[in-house]
Amino acid sequence: MSDELAGAMRERVTHLLPGDRDAAGAPTAFVEGEELWAAIVPERPRIGVRGERRAQAERWKVTLRAGAGVHVGDRLHWRDAAYDVVSVIADPRLMERQDLLMERLS
User: Does any domain span residue 15?
Assistant: First the structure.
């Protein structure tokens, strides 16, 4: 399984970590962390239900090796764009990987 995972990771992303924070604790700047190998595929848009907007930000499903330390609210830099991590999925059946959802920042 790990050979299969390694062969699928063809993209390089940079983990951007929160740097300085304002008085309320919100990050005001992000600093570059480590570069990670990832498997990235587009997330299919879902039809909005009552009250949701139809135009969604560009979303991608990302698979990283477990232990990458990426959390909701972190940012990733990929292909000259910054993305916000909006979801992290840890499947106990697949301990060697971490799946997440990232959304392009406008």
Answer: yes
60-96: per-residue pLDDT in tens? 999 998 888 899 989 999 999 999 999 998 777 888 8
The reply to whether 50 falls in a domain is no
According to DSSP, the β-strands at 11-18 and 97-104 are: unpaired
Owning domain of residue 62: 2-30+38-44+57-104
Distance of alpha carbon 1 from alpha carbon 93, whole angstroms = 12
pTM as predicted: 0.77
69: left (phi > 0), else alpha (psi -120 to 50), else beta?
left
